[in-house]
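request received
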Amino acid sequence: MKKKQSNEILITINIPQFRDDLINWFEEEQRDLPWRKNQDPYRVWVSEIMLQQTKVETVIPYFQRFISNFPTIEALASADEQEVLKSWEGLGYYSRIRNLQSAVKEVVEKYDAKIPEDPDKFGNLKGVGPYTTGAVLSIAYDMPEPAVDGNVMRVLSRILVIQEDIAKAKTRKIFEQAVRQLISHNNPSAFNQGLMELGALICTPRNPSCLLCPVQEHCIAYKKGIEKTLPVKTKKTKQKQKTYFVLVLEDNKANYLLEQRPAEGLLAQMWQFPMVETKEVSENLLIPFIKERYHTDCQTIEYLQPIKHVFSHITWELNVLKIKCDKVKALNHHQRMLSIEEIGDYPLPVSHQKVYKQILH
DNA sequence: AATCCGGGGTC
DNA sequence: GACCCAGGATT
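response:
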């Protein structure tokens, strides 16, 4: 029999009082958000995936549209993959939706469309990590599981004065242990959501509103006047830059060549106007390059507005060329010749929506 | 443990 | 620009 190690943290605040203050504040002050209308585990799950690294205000319209398009777990499981991807267009981190649809299919097949209450079963689904497991199980099923995200680490680092670097992966476990000791078993949902709501509304990164804080009297960092030094977070990655030509190839019927990106990697399976890295081909060799790769002769070339697009880890410099040709043909099933109207049905990353808007005029 | 994976907002 | 955001998968 394996010995259970507890690794309990010494917590000196008044835990029952802290729970009450936090939960009472949350019940009073929580925002009226669409995914808080009920406890439907599917809706909670969808909202938690959308909210990963994404602000509430951004998510709201996407959530409404998504639930209206795919109201149930079965609807999402059986939906067309491209249509689902289109519903995520502009949200970013597109692997989230691929993983979610994959996970939802697994729930339909293995668990009879019932989202499992077992943290191990739910947590093993694609795209469901430690945070999402705790969030969905506590909010939808009232289970006392920790849901530690960036908000929770910031809030608890201040209240308990935890100085561990929250950029390090293993630090999350410290906060999970803290939550296990703090969480209300009476109302785990309001407790977890209260911590996150507090982080979003009061205990903000730069200028926390400590004077309005419902748990100010429990906050050790505030008592010591060090709340702004927390949380401790190292990090910073220098980001690379890449420069491309974007080829808007237009044939004599005003159709445009669109191609689908590979199934893996950046912007997987999204559609775009053909891109060529400038390292591959210099500007004066562009015309022969296009003839070789797309089997067409350029007639006129027009420079459109260049686009700078910043990702979290890359910056794209896009030199956009509108090139009129007599005939252009799709060469494989990852390429299509499409009218302006048809392009609107395809999932494009924001960088290429910017290109699309230029040719709309 | 470090890197990849989007996009929008703030200061 | 730097940093932040209801993170997870991959290497």
